[in-house]
Amino acid sequence: MNLFGVMDVSASALKAERVRAEVVASNMANSETTQTAEGGPYRRHHVVFAAEGDGSFQQSMAGQIGTLNMASSGPMGAGLNLGLSAGLGGSYSDDHTVSGGVTVTGVIEDASEPLRRYDPQHPDAGPEGFVAYPDINPLTEMVDLMGATRAYGMNASAIQAEKGMLSTSLDLLK
To answer: What's the CA gap between 96 and 118, in Å, rounded?
Structure first.
């Protein structure tokens, strides 16, 4: 990972959490929408995240630090033996994937059945007087929004901390 690698990882998480918060806000805004352009009630949406980069944490460490040898370490099983033959540097790549970052792979619709409420006066009521409403629980959505907000805040704090460390390092060089 290069000098700005931590910022790249946190920036990818900021983007992903922003999308998550937008989807939650959309779910909350449409919690009473009984008719969409596709027909039927609004369906709750979920954000799907995936790790960016070339694989697992172990593979990332092997690529950044050097050779990674698995050796037996007594009764506890396999342990890590990290060699520093390749040094601590890494190659800078200008692509959009961040090793160790996160990306949004998609936004999917919830497959749960709509809630049926008896309201014969509603314009979207069926012949029996029931209206199909989205299966959206405001409490669940608020918890999801709190999680997205906290994750966003933590990643913003990580970026600020790295900026402070870089600034301090530059001050030491003066």
So the answer is: 50
